[in-house]
Specification:
The protein is mostly beta strands and 714 residues long. 3% of the residues lie in helices and 37% in strands.
């Protein structure tokens, strides 16, 4: 077996023999890549991969870089003509001929290394804002040599990733020839300068509430940073010396540097710039509230004015002078509102939604102008019987007796019997509602039928304030819209010519003079058992209950006094009563009570079994476990736990019911749950049994001897 070019046999024999058994002999070797000679003659050269040194060469079809030591560049006849500052070159182990070792594509003896240098053009490439007059642009520096670079005014030295610098940074920096600390440094280049850059200085703009910053020409980075600044008002921002920015204050605010007394026309925007010494053209820029001159028409006055300038956003109520109303209002308002908006006064009616610049005026309020206002006496109504009541003022909408009337005769009129003319005040003007009539003081009374006086007369003449007693005949009573006690006597009193009296009408069933109540009415109250007088005997259903007689009703067994809204129902109480009264032929209970089903006291679930080891619960209805009350007659199923039965029975479940007891109270008899036991058995003779009781703590274990009786619980 022969290897292909570039490979050689390694291991045992490469011969393959067919043996007499019909099988080939085993081949123990294999073809492996051959090595190219990788000896480097110069001490300035080295292989980039450390493995080539230990292996002694490069394997066939492998490659590696030949590199120069730090500060040197590589030379070789086959380097591309456009190569600049090469420090390494790739060598391949690729050439191979049959039965010969492979060779490198490039002869290591043709490589050499020379000292690298940095031309000044490499320094100024990409460098901006430096003083070129201080540099010799034609010189070339060797590795390790430095040159000093000075930034122009407004710029400072800073790292390459910086966008601006403070004035604490230096004006200049030293650029050294050779970039990178070793040949393995990704930034390594012996012909490039290790340098800083010149960046503009900046001024710090603090957070400015009620203002925003916009740049006058800026790159994407600055614009994105500025957007964050304007959104987050609690952060500062740097303005570079090569930029200018606008500070725009919100409506109602002005830059503090331009604030005057009443800046209605002062600008809301100023231009900010940063000097080469990191100083803003405006120190501590901010936005301040503007104010307004609160110049109002004569007589208009402001309510609740604060002891400070009239600032943007302030709203005050302005009132018209006394006797005036707001001009143009339909509801005769005396108040309007004013506000300071961006340095100018604005006004609005009470019913308007927005403020306007037009000043609101007030006009005098007069009679008949459509406005609600009080009336004062300024005219006399012609009436021969009317006497003026002077110095009178009437409120809007009220009725007043403005004039008092005189008697038609020369006789003086009792003050109680004087008449008055009624007038109404409407929108500042009086409206007359009545006239004066002749004043009558004495009373002429004609007795109605079935009435009499003592001594007996058919008619009466009474002076003002005189009175006389009038009686109804037997079998008659006074007419009344709401009869209650059937009066038969009245007193007629003369008052300013009038003495009203009642008629006498017959006493009939309709008159309800007999106000007693038949006891049979008690049957209309459901579920009552008996009734008795308050602090008196029991009432017979065939008797009559006296008017205003007070009763006490008892409910049947299992029922209690309730109202329609009683919830939960009260429990049985044999001593509870319903109070009632006989009034005007009807029995009425107090507070609208009636007899209704009672409830048993709440049964507390779960409860323990007789041995206290398990809990008994009921799932008959939702909420029963929360000790809900149960009405009389309601049934509940109680089920004992597994291995338990109702005491005295073999069943696990028993139905119980809320029922009244012999003493009148109600209750539920909850069954006891006993542990089920098996029939006792006898332990055989000549044997023993081990008995376990796990129901106690710690569990018990006892040995029962043969011949003894033993009973087990479930």
């Amino acid at each position: 077996l022969n290897c292909l070019p570039g490979f050689h046999w390694s291991g045992g024999s490469n011969a393959l023999q067919c043996r007499w058994t019909g099988a080939f002999t085993t081949v123990s070797g294999m073809c492996v890549p051959s090595l190219c000679n990788s000896t480097i003659p110069s001490n300035l050269l080295s292989w980039e991969k450390e493995s080539t040194v230990t292996d002694g060469g490069i394997y066939y079809k492998g490659s590696d870089y030949i590199v120069c030591n730090y500060g040197y560049i590589i030379e070789h006849p086959q380097l591309p003509s456009n190569s600049t500052c090469p420090t390494k070159m790739l060598v391949n182990c690729s050439s191979a001929v049959a039965n010969k070792d492979p060779s490198l594509n490039l002869n290591p003896k043709d490589f050499s290394c020379v000292r690298a240098s940095c031309p000044m053009v490499n320094l100024i490439s990409g460098l901006q804002h430096y003083n070129s007059t201080l540099l010799n642009l034609h010189m070339t520096l060797s590795i390790g040599e430095t040159v000093n670079v000075t930034c122009v005014e407004g710029y400072r030295a800073a790292p390459l990733d910086a966008t601006s610098a403070s004035c604490e940074n230096s004006y200049s920096f030293a650029a050294s020839c050779g970039r990178g600390e070793s040949t393995k440094d990704p930034r390594y280049s012996p012909c490039e300068f290790n340098r800083l850059q010149c960046v503009p200085v900046h001024c710090t703009i603090p957070a400015i509430p009620h203002g925003s910053i916009s740049l006058l020409g800026a790159d994407t980075y600055d614009m994105s940073r500025l957007q964050m600044y304007n959104v987050q008002a609690n952060m500062s921002w740097n303005l570079s010396s090569n930029m200018t920015a606008n500070l725009s204050c919100d409506v109602g605010y002005r830059p503090a540097s331009s604030l005057v007394d009443y800046p209605a026309s002062s600008p809301r925007t100023i231009v900010l710039s940063c000097s080469s010494e990191c100083q803003l053209n405006y120190s501590s820029p901010s936005c301040k509230l503007v104010s307004c001159k609160d110049v109002l028409p004569a007589g208009h006055f402001v309510s609740g004015r604060l002891p400070r300038p009239f600032l943007h956003g302030d709203v005050y109520e302005v009132y018209c002078p006394s006797g005036s109303v707001v001009d143009g209002t339909t509801s005769c308002e005396t108040m309007y509102q004013t506000t300071c908006y961006d340095g100018s006064l604005m006004f609005k009616m009470p019913t308007d939604l927005t403020f306007r610049a037009q000043q609101i005026q007030c006009k005098p309020s007069t009679c008949g102008n459509g406005c609600s206002q009080p009336c004062s006496f300024d005219q006399r109504f012609q009436d021969p019987l009317a006497e003026t009541i002077p110095n009178t003022t009437v409120s809007e909408g009220l009725i007043s007796r403005f004039f008092q009337c005189r008697s038609a005769s020369a006789q003086p009129v009792d003050n109680e019997c004087k008449q008055f003319v009624d007038i109404k005040c409407a929108q500042g003007c009086f409206t007359r509602l009545s006239n004066c009539n002749l004043v009558q003081q004495n009373c002429q009374i004609q007795l109605p039928p079935h009435s009499f006086t003592v001594p007996a007369v058919t008619s009466l003449t009474l002076n003002n304030r005189d009175s006389r007693t009038i009686y109804c005949e037997a079998g008659y009573m006074l007419e009344d819209d709401t009869p209650s006690i059937c009066e038969t006597v009245q007193v007629a009193t003369c008052s300013c010519g009038s003495a009203p009296i009642k008629r006498c009408i017959p006493k009939t069933c309709a008159s309800k003079c007999d106000l007693g109540c038949p006891a049979s009415q008690l049957l209309q109250f459901p579920y009552f058992s008996s009734a008795r007088y308050l602090l008196g005997p029991e009432i017979s259903l065939s008797s009559t209950i006296a008017h205003l007689g007070q009763l006490q009703l008892s409910c049947m067994k299992g029922y209690v006094p309730i109202s329609n809204l009683s919830f939960p129902r009260p429990v049985c109480n044999p001593t509870s009563m319903i109070s009632a009264v006989c009034r005007s032929c009807e029995i009425n209970v107090t507070d609208g009570l009636m007899c209704g089903l009672a409830s048993c006291p709440a049964a507390l679930f779960p409860y323990q079994t007789s041995d206290g080891l398990q809990l008994v619960d009921s799932a008959s209805r939702v909420g029963f476990q929360q000790a809900a009350a149960t009405l009389t007659g309601e049934r509940i199923n109680i089920t004992c736990p597994v291995n338990y039965a109702v005491a005295g029975q073999s069943a696990r479940t028993k139905e119980v019911m809320c029922a009244a007891k012999s003493d009148g109270t109600c209750g539920i008899e909850l069954p006891a749950c006993d542990r089920i036991s098996c029939p006792a058995f006898r332990v055989p003779v000549n044997s023993m049994a081990t008995w376990y009781n796990d129901s106690v703590s710690p569990p018990l274990k006892e040995v029962v001897s043969g011949g003894s009786s033993l009973a087990l619980l479930a």
